[in-house]
Every structure is written in C-alpha cells, then in structure tokens.
Amino acid sequence: MTAYQVLARRWRPQRFEDLVGQDVVVRTLRNALSSGQIAHAYLFSGLRGVGKTTVARLLAKALNCEHGPTPEPCGECGACRDIAAGSSLDVLEMDAASNRGIDDVRELREVARVLPVRDRYRVFILDEAHQLSKDAFAALLKILEEPPAHVVFILASTEKDKFPATILSRCLQIDFRPIPAELVVARLAQVAESERFELAAGAAQLIARATEGSLRDALSLLDRVRAFAAAAVDEDAVAEVVGLPPFEAVLALWRALEGGDVAAALGLIRAEEALGRDPAALFEQLVQLVHAALLLATDPAAPAPFPAAHRAAIAESASRLGPALLVRLLALALEGKALVAAAEKPGVAVAVAVGRLALWPRLQRVEALLAGEPAPSGASGPPPPATPAVPTPPTAPAPGGGTPGARLAAALEAMGEHLLAGRVGSVREVTVAGDTVVLRCGGLPASTCASLRRAFEPLAAAAHRAGLGERVEVDESSSGSTVKAAATGLRARVEADEGVQRVLEVFGGRLESVEEKP
Ligand SMILES: [Zn+2]
C-alpha cells in the first residue's frame, strides 16, 4: 500500500506547458532560455499558490538539463530527475522564513563560491525571501553585485514591496498573477476526471471562488472536501467544509429579495444567525449569487457557483429581472458588502444591506416616476406579470401559505401594513371568487368593517401580491350590505394624473393609498 499523496503535489506541473494561468511568465522565461539571456537573479512575486516555486524548479531544470539550457527540459536526464525529486546537489531550496539570519546567508555565500557538483549552474531558490533580515539582505547583495558565473538566484515572495531597492534593481522581476477562476475550475475538473471521482460543476466554482486564484489552495481544498464527502463532491459538501451557509439558505434569501419581501429577507437572516451561522458569509454568498444571476441574464451558458438543479430556476428569474436591474442590484450589493466589512456588528450591517436590496421594486418605481415614465400600475404591489418590459417579482405564495386569509395577511405584513393585517386576521371568512377576494366581516365591530372598507387600496395591492386576485369586496351581510371596490383601477387613474406625478417628482414621495371621497 502506498501513502496518499496530496493532489497539489501529485498535480504539480513538471513541464512549462502544464502550468495553469501563467502564460506571460512562461513565455518570458522560455524566450530568455532560447536566446541564452540568463539572469543571475530572478524575483518571482505574486499571491501564494499561483506557481512561483513550481516555476522556479522548472527554471532550474531548464538551466541544468543535460540538453540545456533549454526551454524544453527533457525531464528524463539525471539533472531533471534529481531536481523533480528534490535531491539535486546543485539546486538548493531554502525557506527564508526559517533561515533568515546573516549566518545562513554567509553559509550560502560560501556554497555559491564553489563550482557546481555535476550540473551547469548552482541554483538557489529562496522561498518567502522578503523575510530575510537586514544583515542577510546586505550579505545577499554582496553576492548579487559580483555573482559567480555559475550561480543563479531565484527569490520567491508574496510581498515584493518588502525588498530593499538595492536587491530589486539587481533582479529580473517576474510578476505572477492570480489564476483566473475559470482556469482553476477547468483544472479541478481535469483532476477529478483523472482521479475518477465525481465533482459537481457548481462545487468546482465554489472552490475556485473560495481560494481566490490560488491553484494550490484550490487543490488542497478539493482534497479536504473529498475526504469529507467520500463519494461525490457537491456544493453542499464544499459549503460545509469551508463554513459557508448551505445553498438552500442563500436561495431562500434570493427568493425573498426577488419578491421584494423585506420582512421575509430579514427573517431569514435572523434564522441563520440563530443557527450560529455568520451573517456576513451568507451575504457574501448572496453577492456571488446576484453576480452569477447577472452573468446568466446575459449569457445562459455562464458558469455559476450553485447546484445544477437550481440553475434553470435562477437563469429564469435572472432573465425576468433583466441585466439592467441586476447591475443596479449588484452595485447595491457591493455597497452593502463594503458596509458589512467596515461594520463592528456585521449582523446589523447585513440586515441594512439586505433590507436595501429587498426594496428594489420601490426604487424602481421612484426611478420610473423621476424619469417621467408612466408608473407601473398597482404601485404598492409588484407590477403586473404580463408586462415583459418591466421586471416583475413573482407573486410567490405568501410566507405561511395556506388559506386566502392567511396569505392576504402575510402579504399585508410584508408591505408593512401590520394593523390592517391584524384586522384581516380577525375576519370570519376570506374567499376568492374569480379575480375578487371577498372578506366577510359580518359579526365584527362596525368600526373594524369600516376600517377595512377604507383600506381597499392596500387590500387590493396585497391581494395582487399574494396572487389571489385584483379586486376586493367587503361583505357585511349581517347588516345586509356588501361594499365592493376595484381599488387598483382607481389607483391607476390617480397615478396617470399629470398633476400627481409632478407632485411626486418635486417632493420625491410615493403614493401610500388612494381613497374615493363619498
Ligand atoms: Zn533533462
């Protein structure tokens, strides 16, 4: 039985062409090797896990290969094999973090003076070289000022700005960029295929995002998730290992936002907090979902960091909201992210950020009014679903579901009409006939019936929002009278009025309710 070798090691590139996402670096070095312009010192800088040490070893091979110096080291000669195995006497790797003193560098100087044991060059690879002490840098500078012909230094570092200018000026500086997420995803898929295990596309996306351009970290994370998930690596397994909220929670939040339901959105945040989950992590996931939705709205084949099972549904709502609105939502989300990052209590900041996002239908109506466009009808509820040009939150089943009365009350709650929701809750019977919602309030105090009658406008809006109908009737049959109303029609007339629009524009207000004087 052989010991398990971690993926990052097993998949460490042994040839320049296997390197992922560092085309500029590779081309620069190959050109230099082809033309024989070999520097005595290189500084490889960039984030961790983007291939600096790997390229340093490849460069050492290219310099010392029996057939070299060559841009295509053979990988088979003694020099190539020893370097790959880390046993070459002429290629010395040092971790500057633990060998940072002047004595270490002095010793290195002694070694540098001696000719190579077998190969063409003595190559020194100094990892985390910015951690050298001041004296050590001074000693290193002395070698770099008059380097022996057979010596090549490769300094690797995540913090280039910590180097003395005197050292920088004597190095050929090569910057490594973060590896683009799609290349990391492609590499993870390739690894999974060769290693014969299942990796969901959304899971690969999540891993790539969580490790921010570091392929080594991505492979290590894949190792950990694979150990945790055993069989197939899916989004939830990644979320669990990374400590992200489960996708269902993010999706529920998205649904609440899509429906413009502030109360439901805030309720979800509280519920996640009560489960001990980090609200900031949930918000971060939401930002990524909004971003993915925007990409999907413009390109249905775009990669998405969530389970394939939900892809179609999110793509559908993304196309309904449209790229223009999603761009604004994303901008709001990014503002929210900055707010959350700066906040002492992220929970409160997340509530504010999510609340603002959920208010998008209102923002949109205000913008429409300011632009002088006719406001969408039913302005205190979502615009009608039949109008394709106007993004439409779906009339999703009201939270709590169930009877028409409960749904109507929930929609009123979501609109902030708490008193009215309470009154509807006390109504004996709420039924739906065609597109009309009938409230039977016979037996209730006359004042309650009267206040329901006065509230036709929000009632009709709530009925629309809850997907119950467009009209509302209040039936007071114990007193023998039925009062009917078509409040949405009245509201539309008022909204179309130019004078009203001017007033709203000047004062930046909105229509709360519309009532007909008896
Ligand atoms: Zn070779």
Can you walk me through this structure?
The chain is α/β, with parallel strands linked by helices. It folds into four domains: 22-175, 3-Layer(aba) Sandwich (Rossmann fold), CATH 3.40.50.300; 181-242, Orthogonal Bundle (Helicase, Ruva Protein, domain 3); 247-358, Zinc Finger, Delta Prime, domain 3 (Up-down Bundle); 415-507, no CATH class. It is 53% helix and 9% strand. The protein is built from 24 helices and nine strands. It has helices spanning 7-10, 23-34, 52-64, 78-85, 102-113, 134-145, 165-168, 181-195, 201-210, 215-229, 235-242, 247-258, 262-274, 279-298, 308-321, 323-342, 346-358, 360-370, 404-414, 418-426, 446-454, 456-465, 487-496, 498-507, and strands at residues 41-45, 91-95, 122-127, 151-157, 172-175, 429-433, 436-440, 471-476, 481-485. The chain has a five-stranded parallel beta sheet with strand order 2-3-4-1-5, covered by helices on one side. Helix 14 (279-298) packs across helix 15 (308-321), helix 14 packs antiparallel against helix 16 and helix 19 runs antiparallel to helix 20. The termini are far apart. Bound molecules: zinc ion. Zinc ion (ZN) is lined by residues 65-67, 73-74, 76-77, 79-80.
